[in-house]
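Open question from group meeting: does this chain pack into something compact, or does most of it stay loose? Before anyone orders reagents, we agreed to write out a predicted structure and look at it together. Recording both the input and the output here so the notebook holds the full record.
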Amino acid sequence: MTKKARRMLRLMDRAVTMWNLPVVGREKGRLLRRLLERHRPVSAIEVGSLIGYSAILIAGHLPPRGRLTCVEANAFLARLAKRNAEEAGLGKRVSIVTGEGIRVIPFIRSRFDFVFIDAAKEEYLDYLRALEPKLRRGAVVVADNTGKAFKRDVKNYLDYVRKSGRYESREYDFGFDAMEVSILK
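Structure tokens returned:
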């Protein structure tokens, strides 16, 4: 990750604290960094970008030829995420697709080895099912906000990744929240 990207994340950390925006943040960001370093994906997709914090984090840890596709339903937030990625020096690695994830994912032609889901909680399973034909074997799927506050909303997703036999899945508890990390078998 470049100094410019790290500087942008520090600036965003201060801003989101003041504005109380729900971004990944430092603690969960460490887990994402470890996963990216361990699995070394080349093609990633993020469903739900908000202001681009996790996009910068993910794209900044991809190899030089790595690319991140972000799907964001809100056109204003999509433009803001793209602008923030450009400001972090990652504009060429990050592409933004504006639209509802369930509707636009089927039209994305790329294949992916890393997925980050952080959008409408009750649609997590629908996003994953739409993405499955595009996933490479061994793909890492990370679902944010799977802890206490959203447990009911993501129950069908958690049941699927834990019991379908298609994934090796593990919960990472942060006390205030959790992330589910699943590896496609």
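Observations to bring back to the group:
The two ends are 29 Å apart (CA to CA).
The chain has a mean pLDDT of 91.
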